[in-house]
Design a protein that fits this description.
By secondary structure, the chain is mainly alpha-helical. The chain is built from three helices and no strands.
Amino acid sequence: MITHLRNRLPRAVAVLGLAVYLLGSLLSLTSGHPELFQRFGALGVAAAILFFTDRLTQIELTRQRAVEAMLHEYGLRFEAIASGTKPEDLPNEGYTLDFLDEESAFTRLRRKAEAINSGNTGLLSVATLQWGFGDLAVEALR
């Protein structure tokens, strides 16, 4: 239970930080508080880093579990061959992994990581510019 909560805590903090960043930025922009708007940029950078790190960690853990399952399966097949079973005599049933399906799953994970990376780059860029020049942007809008 504690491990489950510990695994979810970074994501919850990142999502909360992202929500506070968006809401705070919007409120400080509409109310015309340049310094506050600028400071929310720093919160946006922190939230983006936490969110990005958490998402990529989850993707890596998923990939790691798949690799471990493939290595286990490979070991089972290797043991069968080492005990004298010819490769063509290995049963198709009884093995849980289809290596082509696993490769397809890895491709999906890579695409997901690329999408997260792209979104995070955009968020970090906006939040960093807000942090550095947010006061000037609000002043220009007045």
